[in-house]
Each structure stands twice: as C-alpha cells, then as structure tokens.
User: Which sequence fits this backbone?
C-alpha cells in the first residue's frame, strides 16, 4: 500500500498562507519594539489579502489534494463550495482585522493577531476538507485559538470566565463528536466522505444502530459551533466577555465554519440518512431561531452590554435561519445548500459591518448600551446610515434588499421541501426579529435632547481602518442589494 | 423602448432616485432660500414629474384594450430564483397608479406649505413610500410585488413615529408589526405558488387560471396570501392597527395610508388571489364576504359610538373606522367573484382613496386651525360651527362626508352599489341565500354610515357661532391646490363612473373568464 499522498501546494495555498502569516506575526512580535506593534496588524491584513488572491487560480473549482493513490477519495477539495466559503472566511477575517485596529491597549497585540490568524487558518481549511479527520482538525484549529482570544483582555475578570464557559461546553461537544466519528468509522471503515456516503448505508445490519448513533453524535459538535439550541448558552457570556472584534469574528467566521462543516457532513457523508438528520435539523432550526429572537427581544436597551447582547442573540436567531435550508436539503430541495451559503454571505457582510460600527462606538461608550446609539445620526451620519442599513438587511426589509432576498431563498427552499410548519415558524420569527432590529434603527435617528450633558465634545471620527471596514461592508451590501444575483446564483447549481 | 414603457419605468424609478437624492446636500443653484425649502421643493418637483408621467401614461394607454397588459418591461433580475423585473399596467392598476401619483404630489405640495421638521428625511421617506406603492401597482412578478409591498413599511413607520401626534410610538409599532407578520405569511403563499406553478410571472399564472396548481395548494396559497393582504386592507378582525396608526399619523401620512396603502391589500386580492388561485378563492369567498360584512357593520357602529357627545371620539379615529367599513364593501365586492362585484370593488377602491384622502386633508386643516381633532374638545355639546367660522372649509368637509356616505352623484355611490349588486347574484356555486343576507347587512351598513357621517357633520360643521368663538382662517392657497383636485375628481367619478369603469371592466372580464355577470 502506497501511503504517500500527492500534495498540490497551489490548491492548499489559501489556508497555508494564513497559517504561515500567523507564524510570521508571532515571530515578528518578538523583534518589534513596542512602538511598532502596529505593523503586526498590517501584516495580518496583507496575509489575509494574499490568501484571498490565492483563491484566484483555483476558481475553476476542480482541484483536489491529499488524494489516496488508489482513487479512494481526496482529503482536500477546492470545489465551488470550498472556494465560496473560503472567500467568506477570509473576507470576514479581513474585515475583523480592519476594524480591530488600532488594537485596544489592554490586548497583547502579537498574541491577538496570531490567534486570530490561526483560527482563520482553521476556518479556511474546514470547508475544503473532505474527510472526517481533516474536518475535525480544522474545526479544532478554528475553535482552540478562539478560547484564548476570548480570554485575552488583561485585567478583566469577565474574559477568563466566559472563555472557560466557552471552552468547557466546546470541549464536551468535541468529545461527543469524536465519539460519533469513531462509531461512523467503525461502521463504514473509512474516514473519507465519499467512501462513507456509500459504505455507511451498505454496512452490516448489525451495525445499523451504531451507524445511526455515529451520525447523530457527529452532528452535535457542529451544532455547538453554529450555536444551535441547546448548545447556545455559551454565546451571550462569550460575546459580552470577549473583545468586540473577537465577538464579531465568532459570530461570523466561526459560525460559518460550523455551518460549512454541517453541510459537508450531512450532504456528503450522510446523504443516505436524511430521514434521520432532516427532522432533527428542522426542529433545531425552529428552536434556535425562536430562542435567539425571543432572547434578543427581551434585551433591555438601557442595560450594560445590551448592544453586544442583542447582536449575540440575534446571531443565534440568524443561525436558526441558516439551518433551515440544511434541513430542507434532507427533503431534496434543490439549491438548498446554495441558499444557506448565500444567506451566510449576506449575513457575514452585514453582521461584521454592524460589529464594526459597534466597535467604533465602544471606544467612546465602553458600556455597550443600546441607548448609546440614540441620535447617532446627528453625530456620525455615515456610520448611522450604514448601521441602519445593516440592521434592516438583517431584518430582511427594504431598503435592505439583499437581506430580503436571502430570506426569500431560504423560505423557498423550505417551501420546496414541504417544510410548511418550519416556514411558518420562521415567518413569525422574522416578524419578532424586525421589532428589535427596527427599534435599534429607530434609536439611531431619534433626536437627542437639545443639550445632552453626556456628549459635550464633538465625537471623534472613526479610525481610517474602521471606516474602511464599515465602507467595505456597506459597499458589499449595497452592490448585492442592486444585483442579488451575484450571491443567489449559488442557489441555482449544486455546489458540492 | 416605447414611450409607455419609459413612462412606467420612470414612474417607479423617479421617486426612488429622488428619495436618495433628498438625503444629499442640494447642488449649487438649487439651494433655494434655506435647506428645508430646497428639499421640500425637490419633493414637489419629483412628485410633480411622477404625476406628469402618470398622466402621460394615461394618455398613451390604449383605451380600446384595457384588458391587455401595456407598457410592459420584462428583464431578468435574479435568474437563480426566477425573479424578473416585470412591470406593466392594465385597466385595473392604471387608476391606482394615477391615484397614487396624484396623492403623492398633493402631499408634497401640502408639506411644502406646512414645512415639517427634518424636511430632508421627511421628503426622502415620502418619496420612498410613493415609489414602493407605485412599484406595487406596476409589478407583475410575485416576488417583485412582495418587495414593493414591503418597501412601504419602513418609511411609513418612521413617518408615524417621527412626525406623528400623541401615542405615535406604539401606533407605529402596531402598524409595522401587524403588517410585517401578515406580509411574511403572504410571502410563503407567493413562494408556494411560484414553486408549484413553476414561475413567478403574474401574467402567465393569471392566464393559467389555476391550472397546474392543485386544490390544496390553492387553498393554502389563498389562505396565506389572503391573510397578508387582509391585514393591509384591513379586514375585520385584523384592523386594530389602523385606527391607532391614523390617529397618530401626520396629515400626509394619513392621506397616503388611507389613500393608497390600504389599496395595496385589495389590489393584491384582485391581481393575485382571484385569477391565480380561483379554486381557493371560490372556497374562501363566503368567509371573506362574512368578514367583510362584519367589518362594514363593526366600522359603522364604532363610528356611531365615537361620534356621540362626550364619547371622547377623535375625528381621525372616526375616519379610520369608517375606512374599515368602506374597505368592507370593497372586500364584499371581490368576494362575490362576479365581474360586477369586482368592478364595484375597484371603483370603491379609487373612490375611497379620493374621498378619504380629502377627508384626512380637511381634518388636518381643522387641526392646524383649532389645534385639536378631539370631537368633544372641538365641538363641545353645541357644535364646532365650522360653517360659520370657516365656511369654505366647513362646506368642503360636509361635501367629503356626504361623498363618503355614498350619495348618488358622488364617487362613493357607485362602488358600493356595484358591490352590493354583485352580492345580489354571486358567482355560480356560491350560496345565494348567504350572499343575500350579506347584502341586507351591507345595506344596513350604508344606513349606519349615513347616520354617523351626518352626525359628524352636525357636530363639526353646525352649531351656534358663539361670541367667544373667534373666526378661523378660511382655506388658503396651498389648501385649495391640495383639496380641489380631489373634490373635482370625486364629483367627476360620481357623475361619470365610466371614467373608471371603462378601464376596469375589460380587465376584470379578462381576469374572470366564463363569468356571465
């Protein structure tokens, strides 16, 4: 048996470049004087840009790597799905890197950038992995640095506590997933998705229960990463305890990675078990969106951290919408995976935009209260208009046209699959979510009192990098609102 | 591209571009005397251009064949979901397009004279609202229709919440949450039709008359779509957002809400539910009629309660409840599934837009002069005596009220008459005794409507001109400009109903093939 696998370096360039940048940043941190630490951020941005450019030669979507010599499957495939999700992850990390600058003084810069890049490297690898071992490793590479990122803030007791909560729940989920993977391996005899897809349903009858248990347990870990109910309890504490850019990163990149993993496992590895995971995902989707939206609705605007809390819970609600097409895929809805990816793209752009505005405001109002946003339009008309647009996109109402069409794509997947009840639950959730998104939007344009004592000095303009991040997000959302086809084209073909 | 196509595209695009432009600083040369004046003038210019385009469209429209879709533009937009930029007008939508353009222009004119605060945002929102409404009436793609339908929500919310009167915040929330819940459910119905019917093209689906859609699909689709549209119309018992929204909304908001936004609901029923899912409509028609008649009776009883002395009634709330009753007639007409009834419904739609638009303008004028719309504070026990204190305003108010109660010779008459005539002989397969009962109840409703409107006229317009009641300023130039077109059209449509019916009837025949009446 030939154990040597071919490695196509061009194909695996995107995750590799991110990982190399991570190491380079860590090393450079040792030699840079404190005054020049700002360069590390520039290095990060450059590395992520380079990794994004490395996607270009792969755009045909037919390259593979780490293939078994006997044609038994490949461990890495740069197909359309992988490329689109990699683009999302890299762009998301790039936006995060932009609005995280200048890094807060209470964060160690070198470690911050290293951990962010390391996590991004894992998230870039994840959508391209085509066997369970690579997938789990990628998932852990994405998550492990995230614990540290959450705990990174110096002299703040909440960071370590929320990191510990995050860590413990996550490790439990990973352990369960590993158990599931071992069951699947026992039943199918392979770790490659293509092989599992055919071997698992054909396995010995006596192994059927083992196989089913393996499928169910494997999904648990991914449910955790997507913050699906009942694995969503870490979200609020983690987001409020973490530095704001990290919360934004978790809400988009880490969540997308989880969704991508879930898509890979369900549609590639366990297509024959749609009857098992379809209903489970449908129920999870309904519960997740309801729990997230109801909790967001109950957020008191005047309470400390209410803005981050709201974003955290709304991201749980959005995860619920993201799960809907996955559930629909079990019932043979065409283009369902594409609908999920298109939704994730829309969500990534506007949610990071919202976090960018929030992180700018947090420099002046460290309380992260929703009421800090009152009358933002007066102080920063550009930022307020952008945030209003992002929130309406999340709510899915015009003028946030792309948000509306992303929801239409998700709804139509559900309707096509005959998931009427789930569609109605989602419809009600959209109405609930509108309330808190619109309440926030309305706050932005509300008039403040004539002489607001808390705001005596003119507000400083956002840093150029933050402005760039907000601008890029807004530009993406605007272009997509006029030409929704750019992302919705994903729903027309099969991505995998 | 023909002239008609260009005109229709301009109708939809101009207000949207104008809305974005209103937020930008005025270019040099158009700065006017102040930024507020400049932006309000910009609003008048854009809505004026839209009105001109609408009138030109009316002129180039082929009046010999109003049943055909004209001025159609059909471009691919999102091929992945099969969504197209498909626009067009026929005899059903054209009157509503013109009505919207007219009311939009009159509102901009009124705003120019009254100078609302935050003029830039105000103008941008009104233009966005107008653009969304026009797009709703012009859209021929189900998802595009939905997009346009939703576009009006945010501007209306802000118009009520920011420029409204007492209780505006809760009223705005009630409006937006009711409507959005309804419309998301409607989206599900639209998608169901699109997925099962294989296209979102409203023309193709209407040509098919439900072929290719199973009975159960049609039932679910009509239920979902009907729910969304019924909230908007509003149909009893889903109306409770309307009185609050109207009471709190600023004058122009009320005018646009009553004049055109409510029409989107009934228009959707005629344009989508009726031709695309006829079986489903047939099943639900008697229930729709029952709700419609309940709305008529309920609306007029509520108004009767409000108009009593010391009942704490509010003029705007009164007119809002009267809208519930009037829209009940529209729904009754649709639910008969006959050409007569649907024509009546479409006529009543336009008439209600004209008359209620005028009424809200007039109440706004009363509030501007007296500072109140509360009937008791305004009229006391004796009456507000507007006839004596501001005779032209009082006279016009009485005219609008009488038009609203359906006096023959004015616009309010024909629609309700035709709707009730349709109920006399509903479509085959619908229970005639049930519809005769509805007819009798609707007839009772007209009596009650007459009663409360006359009582209102007595309390507001009549009364002794006491020595301490100072005379109020009479109608001013901008008020003449805003009110006259509506009053003239009310009279014209009442004396010459063919003005509207010649347009709608062929189109309705086209939608309801094989229906004798």
Assistant:
């Amino acid at each position: 048996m030939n154990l040597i696998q071919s490695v196509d370096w061009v194909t695996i360039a995107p995750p590799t470049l991110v990982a190399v940048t991570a190491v380079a940043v860590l090393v450079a941190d040792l030699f840079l004087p404190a005054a020049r630490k700002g360069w590390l951020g520039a290095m990060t941005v450059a590395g992520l840009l380079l990794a994004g450019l490395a996607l270009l030669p792969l755009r045909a979507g037919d390259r593979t790597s780490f293939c078994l010599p006997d044609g038994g499957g490949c461990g890495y495939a740069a197909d359309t799905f992988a490329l689109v999700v990699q683009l999302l992850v890299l762009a998301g990390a790039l936006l995060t890197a932009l609005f995280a600058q200048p890094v807060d003084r209470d964060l160690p810069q070198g470690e911050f950038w290293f951990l962010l890049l390391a996590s991004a490297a894992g998230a870039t690898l994840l959508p391209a992995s085509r066997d369970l071992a690579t997938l789990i490793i990628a998932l852990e590479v994405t998550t492990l640095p995230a614990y540290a990122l959450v705990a990174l803030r110096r002299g703040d007791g909440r960071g370590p506590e929320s990191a510990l909560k995050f860590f413990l729940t996550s490790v439990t989920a990973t352990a369960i997933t590993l158990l599931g993977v071992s069951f699947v391996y026992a039943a199918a005899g392979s770790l490659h998705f293509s092989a599992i897809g055919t071997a698992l349903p054909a396995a010995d009858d006596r192994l059927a229960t083992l196989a089913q248990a393996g499928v169910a347990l494997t999904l648990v870990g991914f449910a955790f990463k997507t913050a699906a109910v009942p694995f969503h309890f870490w979200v609020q504490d983690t987001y409020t305890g973490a530095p704001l850019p990290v919360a934004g990163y978790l809400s988009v990149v880490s969540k997308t990675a989880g969704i991508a993993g879930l898509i890979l496992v369900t549609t590639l590895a366990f297509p024959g078990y749609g009857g098992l995971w379809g209903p489970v995902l449908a129920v999870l989707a309904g519960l997740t969106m309801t729990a997230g939206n109801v909790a967001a609705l109950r957020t008191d605007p005047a309470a400390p951290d209410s803005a981050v809390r709201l974003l955290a819970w709304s991201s749980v609600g959005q995860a619920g919408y993201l799960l809907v097409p996955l559930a629909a895929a079990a019932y043979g809805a065409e283009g369902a995976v594409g609908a999920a990816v298109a939704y994730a793209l829309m969500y990534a752009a506007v949610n990071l935009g919202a976090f960018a505005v929030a992180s700018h405001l947090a420099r002046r109002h460290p309380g992260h209260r929703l009421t800090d946003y009152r009358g933002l339009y007066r102080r920063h008309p550009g930022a307020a208009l952008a945030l209003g647009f992002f929130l309406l996109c999340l709510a899915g109402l015009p003028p946030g046209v792309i948000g509306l069409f992303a929801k239409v794509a998700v709804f139509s997947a559900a309707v096509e699959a005959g998931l009427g009840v789930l569609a109605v639950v989602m419809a009600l959730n959209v109405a609930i979510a509108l309330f808190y998104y619109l309440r926030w939007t309305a706050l932005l344009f509300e008039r403040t009192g004539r002489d607001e004592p808390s705001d005596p000095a003119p507000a400083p303009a956002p840093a150029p990098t933050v402005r760039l991040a907000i601008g890029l997000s807004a530009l993406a959302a605007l272009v997509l609102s006029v030409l929704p086809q750019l992302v919705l084209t994903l729903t027309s073909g099969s991505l995998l | 591209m023909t002239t008609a196509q260009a005109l229709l595209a301009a109708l939809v695009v101009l207000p949207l571009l104008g809305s974005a432009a209103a937020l930008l600083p005025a270019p040099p040369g158009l700065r006017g005397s102040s930024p507020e004046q400049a932006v309000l003038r910009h609003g008048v210019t854009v809505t004026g251009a839209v009105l001109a385009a609408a009138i030109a469209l009316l002129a180039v429209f082929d009046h010999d064949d109003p049943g055909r879709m004209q001025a159609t533009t059909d471009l691919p937009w999102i091929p992945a979901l099969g969504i197209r930029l498909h626009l067009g007008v026929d005899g059903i939508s054209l009157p509503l397009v013109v009505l919207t353009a007219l009311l939009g222009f009159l509102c901009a004119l009124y705003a120019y004279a009254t100078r609302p605060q935050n003029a830039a945002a105000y103008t941008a929102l009104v233009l966005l609202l107008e653009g969304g409404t026009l797009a709703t009436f012009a859209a021929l793609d189900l998802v595009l229709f939905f997009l346009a339908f939703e576009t009006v929500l945010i501007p209306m919310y802000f118009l009520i919440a920011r420029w409204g009167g007492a209780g505006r915040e809760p009223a705005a929330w009630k409006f937006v949450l009711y409507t959005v819940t309804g419309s998301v459910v409607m989206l599900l119905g639209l998608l169901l039709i699109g997925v099962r019917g294989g296209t979102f093209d409203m023309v193709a689906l209407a040509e098919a008359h439900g072929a290719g859609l199973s009975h159960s699909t049609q039932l679910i689709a009509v239920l979902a779509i009907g729910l969304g549209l019924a909230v908007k119309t509003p149909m009893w018992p889903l109306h409770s957002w309307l009185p609050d929204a109207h009471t709190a909304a600023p004058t122009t908001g009320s005018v646009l809400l009553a004049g055109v936004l409510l029409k989107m609901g009934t228009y959707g029923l005629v344009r989508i539910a009726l031709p695309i899912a006829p079986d489903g409509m047939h099943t639900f028609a008697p229930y729709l009629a029952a709700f419609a008649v309940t709305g008529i009776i309920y609306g007029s009883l509520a108004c009767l309660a409000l108009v009593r002395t010391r009942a704490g009634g509010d003029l705007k709330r009164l007119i809002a409840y009267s809208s519930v009753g009037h829209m009940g007639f529209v729904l009754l007409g649709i639910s008969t599934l006959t050409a007569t009834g649907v024509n009546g419904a479409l006529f009543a739609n336009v008439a209600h837009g004209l008359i209620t638009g005028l009424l809200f303008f007039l109440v706004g004028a009363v509030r501007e002069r007296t500072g109140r719309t509360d009937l008791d504070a305004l009229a006391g026990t004796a009456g507000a005596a507007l006839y004596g204190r501001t005779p032209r305003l009082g006279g016009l108010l009485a005219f609008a009220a009488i038009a609203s109660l359906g006096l023959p010779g004015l616009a309010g008459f024909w629609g309700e008459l035709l709707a009730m005539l349709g109920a006399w002989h509903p479509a085959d397969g619908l229970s005639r005794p049930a519809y005769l009962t509805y007819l009798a109840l609707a007839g009772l409703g007209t009596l009650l409507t007459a009663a409360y409107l006359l009582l209102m006229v007595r309390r507001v317009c009549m009364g002794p001109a006491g020595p301490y009641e100072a005379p109020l300023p009479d109608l001013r130039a901008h008020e003449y400009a805003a009110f006259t077109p509506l009053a003239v059209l009310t009279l014209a449509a009442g004396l010459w109903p063919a003005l509207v019916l010649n347009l709608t009837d062929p189109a309705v025949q086209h939608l309801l093939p094989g229906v004798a009446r």
